[in-house]
Amino acid sequence: QVQLVESGGGLVQAGGSLRLSCSASGGTFSSYNMGWFRQAPGKEREFVAAISWSGSTTSYADFVKGRFTISRDNAKSTGYLQMNSLKPEDTAVYYCAARLGVRVAINAYDYNAWGQGTQVTVSS
Q1: Which of 35, 100, 108, 113 is deepest in the core (most CB within 10 A)?
Q2: Looking only at Cα atoms, what is the longest distance across the chain?
Q3: How does DSSP assign the chain, residue by residue?
Q4: Dihedral over alpha carbons 122, 93, 74, 27 (to 10 degrees)
Q5: Comparing C-alpha atoms, which of 3, 9, 32 is closest to residue 91?
């Protein structure tokens, strides 16, 4: 099973940007669909974005459309989440996930492998 490690989180002021990375090992990264989820204290884990194995299809949660961009570089076995115009409500632990399948998915239970998470904190 593919193993995932997130990085790139940190503290940023509202309106700023961060780019999260998700490095994969232990499998053929290009065979997996990839997603990003986040979880704030006291809240349920929620879908952020997903991308197909080829990178040709993407899906975004409504609250990040126009601000976040998901991408992947299969040659580097790495996925990315570019986050612009960050808001305090974006503060959460962000997780990358991977699944074998034909289509992208927005439900956490559809994903087979998860990273450890990286903290993103946006100050006002």
Answers
A1: 35
A2: 40
A3: --EEEEE--EEEETT--EEEEEEEESS-GGGEEEEEEEE-TTS--EEEEEE-TTSS-EEE-GGGTTTEEEEEEGGGTEEEEEE-S--GGG-EEEEEEEEESSS---SGGG--EE---EEEEEE-
A4: 170
A5: 9
The per-residue pLDDT for range 101-116, each reduced to its tens digit, is: 878 999 999 999 999 9
Question: Token pair 């940023």 is at which residue?
Answer: 12
Type of residue found at 28: T
Nearest Cα to Cα of residue 106 among 54, 42, 38: 38
